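OP here, attaching both records as promised.
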Amino acid sequence: MSIQHQILGAAGRDNALLLHINTGQSVDRLLFDCGDGVLAGLPFAEIQRIDHLLFSHLHMDHVGGFDSFFRCTYNRESKPNVIWGPPESARILHHRFQGFRWNLHGETDVVWRVCEVGAEAVTRTRFALREAFAAAYPDGARPFTGTLIEEEAYTVEAIHLEHRGPSLGFLVREPVRRNVDRGKLEALKLPPGPWLKQVKHPAPGQTEIAVNGTRFSVAALQAALLSEAPGDGIAYLTDFLLDDAAMARLVPWLRGCRVLVCESAYRAADADLARQNGHVTTIGAAELARRAGVSRLLLIHLSDRYPPETWPELLDEARAIFPRTEFPRGWGLG
């Protein structure tokens, strides 16, 4: 399995994160935030294939491009239509659903669901295209455990942050990878073959595996042949107050994460202003990456309060603390 990431939008403009998760049998697409213009470079068919839209929060610069997404998907029947966001997402998005004069919709059975991620529970609300999204229907709730989406090949976790109001951080994780140690296989004089897939992923209730006519215990083969390695992980954090309390919660949560995509709206010299407005500085993002032990830090959400010619200086500030800091590919800023 592989997780490929793409930062949408431009430097100094609205940004979003698009993930392609290739499971070997299919490709899942997750879009995090949907600001103005972020979908401009994506083909219509690619937008239609997005499986989940997840909002960190619903300020204008994170939801301004929703109409473009909705135009491509409003009547989609090929997959479930699911949106995730913090409390009040259903109320706000209901207005977006109703912000058009609808026609040719009465014969459709398309349903949209908005899942609000609260501190204690995830609450779903259902909307129907057939009735031009006239009503919001309660659609159940479940306890919030930290995990929003749980597929066989990956999970999506959320954490509650503060941005003068609720904001969500997201972390996509692969499960632990179980690999066959070829050296141990040779030492046991066992031949490679399809049976190794059963060792890694035995059927429910399976306790034995036949190898060249000899039966072996599944548990014994797993103990003798398999090694475990952490799966891939990519985190998306934007628009939040990074104080001591948030740092203490985020560092262990991010352990094992390969790529951290994080806002850097303020220079280090403007730390007081960043704190006042619930944002992160360049060195704050870098310190978080360093303490969490991530492999790479991608800085996004550059503020246009700073002249573009000074943006590389923001990168230098972060690299002084965490050298493996970058701007997104294609920004041409170093």
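Record two, same layout:
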Amino acid sequence: MGRRSRPVNGAKNGRSFRPIRGIISLPLVVCLSAVLWSACREGPAEQKEIRLGLLAILQGVPRDTSGIPSVHGAELAVKTVNESGGVMLDGTPHRVVLVVKDYEDRADSATSVARALINQERIDALIGPQFSRHAIPVSVVAENARIPMVSPLSSSPATTEGKEFVFRLAFLDAVQGAVMGRFAVEELEASRAAVLYDISTAYGRNLAAVFRESFEQHGGRIVAFESYTRDQPLDYRELLARIGRTTPDVLYLPNDTERVAAQIRQAREQGLDITILGGDTWDMESFKLMPETNGSFMTHQWHPALDTREARDFVARYRKEYDETPKVTAAMTYDAVMLLVDVIERKGRKDADTIRAGLVEVEDFTGASGTIRFHGSPDPERAVIISKLENGKSKLYRIVDPE
């Protein structure tokens, strides 16, 4: 699939009732008392709900870079929907309820919590996980339970492959890896590239392989292709020393935020004064405050400077609500909630089969992160954002559109 790129400069109505004045007759008092007594005995009418489950890591390093932004994005979406009257199904308003569950940064923890959301909380749809290393096993749980699942940020093809009820909002690893490989050659004029990646995750393996293929296809040469595993200490000096001896023009780090931060600092300590490239797990809001990341480029699903009405409105409301700039995770999770609500309201039902069918039909949903089109696939067609970290700021550098 070819892509074209373009540069970016600067990168329900309520009703009011009038009270009845005058003397209330004794029969009316008796009647009202009887009604109230009956109501008290029977209890309040059960409010109709649409229950959405959210998996978010609220501990360790991912808490601030992924978990909290996920919760904030989902909360803002739910607040927006409920304040507008909820979701109308068969003429009855349904309140959206968000059920958030924390889990540890392990696949078994993610699947266990997902089962709890499905079997105990009786959710209508599942949002998350964000990371492919958790989304892939959780997708099996959701598929077996026939519960619609939307992962905002998992980009591994294994998350949705062969499944009917599992969807994603992010572009695939193959898309962003290919875009960055070509960008390095054509835009940065790099001829020699090194890659340091996490071989223990599907995300790291996929991006590293696709980048290498794309870079070489466009005339570049991979001079170092080094790997590590997540259980290793955050010391990459020996690997970086080997990379440095190959004199690359660029270094590609398709890894998670915690490890990338250590890798970049250690690379600079060893005098690797070259352009560093990354993928959509990079947390641009924290990395822009690291001097060592100056001049780096990354592929992302979204950028807060995206100049659309939906993006501007989301950023303004998020800043007002939480007094901070939203991270990519927040925007993508916000869109996951709004997309599910849109599908449920449009189809007029909230059963799993109807939600699944509605998601497959999505052709033109526009949210804070852009326009999403599934075209009968669980994987969307969407633009790739390339951002640049420069002088303590994150700049929207280029938008690469699908063709």
